[in-house]
Give the backbone structure.
Amino acid sequence: MEGKFLPATLMMIRVAGWVLLLHLLEISLWAVVYAWKNCMPDLDSAFYFSAVTYTTTGYGDLVLPPAWRMLGAVEALTGILMCGWSTAFFFTVVSRRKHPPSNPSGAAESP
């Protein structure tokens, strides 16, 4: 068991790192849209607002203009869904590491 601990741990760190990077990429894309449409005063504020909205923290210190407020709600919903998807993906990776599928090709085994 001890010989499998380090490779499994490193794989989990890599998966978590990639998932986090993808979340940050999506937050950045939302921020670019907010800055491009002049919904936020600058890109730093847009990134901060996007991160707070995506994670559904919602401090309320920055708000979108009235015409764009539903976009913030859409980002929050997207963030919730993507975090849930990430949890399911991470669980699947861990489960398959612990219990690999007996027939990975998905084809029926011949008798």
